[in-house]
Amino acid sequence: MSAESQVEPTAPQVIGSISELRQRLTEARLQASAATSRRAGDTRRSPRVVLVPTMGALHAGHLSLVARAQELGDIVVVSIFVNPLQFGAGEDLDSYPRTLQADVAALAPLGVPFVFAPTALEMYPNGPTATRVTAGDAGTLYEGAARPGHFDGMLTVVAKLFNIVGCDAAVFGQKDAQQVFLVRRMVADLNLPVEIEVAPTVRESTGLALSSRNQYLTEAEKLGAGAISAGLRAAEAAAPNARAAVAAAHGIIDTQPLVKLEYLVVVHPQSFLPVDDGYRGAARMLVAAYVGTTRLIDNVPLDLNSPPARVS
Ligand code: AMP
């Protein structure tokens, strides 16, 4: 092992101020650009800044996004901000886990240079913004139906973060499939110069998708929550018949007494509208359910193409 590879990664700089972050990123870009041109002679490439937006309480799912960001670019920024704008009245804004110290400790071994952890006052100095990004009709379905205004708040903060960081790319998790769909559409609709990368859902060995909200679950609820991903796996196995896939998922989820299904729907990947029974092609099954008082979401891709005709 070379001496260079033994160097311990330094802890991230935790920055709460927008102007300071911009200053540090300008410096980091200059440094990275000088280092690149030293290594590569005259073939210059501007360093890429990649953002991983999170609300903290980091788990292995978030860390997988960071690993992807490191593959995609030169300077990684992890934002940690529990965005009040995307929480409705009666939701868990106040009780949402805030674990900044542990989050920074989890990022340190990965060598992430910057954590942007602003206060609500820094992000919204004049209170909730008068100007908002609206998610449109697709933002009123599924998660948006259960959480009115959630996606407008989410898109607004994501747009602000893109502008604050000036990132070239941003990494999101497939776990929040409707979020990914809406962020991609915002980027296309508003011509934002940010490449959107999506990383696969990280799961526990039981199949349960990792989520910061899993820490609200009791042991019994956690076990019961396994029915959600088991239902989705059964649906995948029952494809390409959409009706059979839905029935297979219900067959498992509905029989778990601790899980109260909120919606289970098969959507078209390009429109996010429900597909009809005759639909053939790629689709995605989305599910939301309460396990006790905790609301969980998950999804899987479904291949609803007809199986190849049998050659006799
Ligand atoms: P959150 O902190 O819940 O807002 O999530 C921040 C980012 O992490 C989002 O892009 C999520 O989709 C992603 N994420 C959350 N859970 C997982 C998971 N289990 N696997 C992969 N990505 C995840």
Characterise this structure.
It contains nine helices and nine strands. It is α/β, with parallel strands linked by helices. It has a six-stranded parallel beta sheet, with helices on both faces. The chain has a three-stranded antiparallel beta sheet with strand order 7-8-9, with helices on one face. The chain starts with 12 loop residues before the first strand and ends in a 9-residue tail after the last strand. The relative contact order is 0.12. Bound molecules: adenosine monophosphate (AMP). Residues 54-55, 61-62, 64-65, 172-173, 175-176, 199, 201-202, 209-212 line the site of adenosine monophosphate. Adenosine monophosphate (AMP) is lined by residues 54-55, 61-62, 64-65, 172-173, 175-176, 199, 201-202, 209-212.
Relevant terms:
single chain, 312 residues, alpha/beta, Rossmann fold, Pantoate--beta-alanine Ligase, Chain: A,domain 2, 2 domains, three-stranded antiparallel β-sheet, 9 helices, 36% helix
